[in-house]
Amino acid sequence: MVRLFLLLVFLNVTPLHANETKTPVFGWHKEFIGTLNFSQNNFDNWTHGGEDSWSWINDLNGRFNYIQSRYSWNNSLNISYGRTKIGDKEAKKASDELKFDSVLTYKMGSYVNPYVAFSGNTQFTRGYHYFETGKTAVSDFMDPAYFIESTGFGYEPNKIIKSRFGGALKETITSEFPVRYADDPKTEKLEKTKVEGGLECVTDLSTNFGENIVFSSKLELFSNLASFDRIDVNWDNLFSSKISKYLNVSLRVRIYYDRDISRKRQLKQVLALGLSYTLI
Description:
Elements: H1 2-10, E1 27-41, E2 53-67, E3 71-86, E4 92-106, E5 112-122, E6 127-131, E7 134-139, E8 145-155, E9 161-173, H2 178-181, E10 193-209, E11 213-223, E12 232-242, E13 247-257, E14 266-278
Antiparallel strand pairs: 1-2, 1-14, 2-3, 3-4, 4-5, 5-8, 6-7, 8-9, 9-10, 10-11, 11-12, 12-13, 13-14
C-alpha cells in the first residue's frame, strides 16, 4: 500500500520552486479543507474467499489566522471521524479525534517572539477494546480530554518551520475512565482530574513540493520534569498529493507516547485515496 502511495505521489511531482518573499497581508486568513475516503467490498459466490466490508473516514482541517503588524493570532481545528465494518461484525471506529490549537504571538523581533497558547484534544464517541468474548469500553467524549496552557518564546526562521518553547500547565479530565488516564496509583483516592506543570515544545513544519504535493509535520513534547523517560510525545505527519481537482491521496503517520497510559509507543498509519473539497 505504501508503494502505491509513493507511485501516485511521484506521478504528480513538479519541479520545486524557491519560496518567494511576499509582503504579509494583514487581516483574517481562513482555510477549511476536507477529505472524504470510502472503500467497500462485496462477495457473492466468490470461491476464493473473502468477507464483505466497508470503511469511511472524513477529515476536516481548518486554519483561522489573524495577522497584524505587531501581533498574530493563529488558530487551527482538526476533526477526524470514520467507521469500518467487516463481515457480520458490528461497525467499529476507524478514526476519532477533535483537536484545537490557538497561539497569540507578539512580534518583538524578526525571529524570536513571546507567545501565549491554548490547546485541547478529545474524541467524539465511545471507544472500545475488542476481545473474542466481547468488548470493554475504555474512553468516551471528554473522557479523557487534554488541555494545555503555555507561555514562552516562539522561533520562526522562515515560512516553512516554526517552533515554540515555554512553561506549560497540562490538565487531564476524565469521568468514567479515570484509572488509566488521570488517577494516581500512589494514593487511595480515585482522582478524575490530573494537573501537571512543566515544559512544552511544539514544532510545526509545512512545505510544498511543486503545486500538488504537501508535507506537514507537527511534533508536540511535554515534560512534567519528573524524569526524561516520561516526556509525552505526539508526532503527527501528513504527506498529501492532489491527483486531480477533487481526487487526493494521503499518507498519515502518527506516533504517540505517554508513559502514564502505556510503556510502549503507540503508532497509527492511514493510507487514503478519496475526495478533497474546500469549504472556505
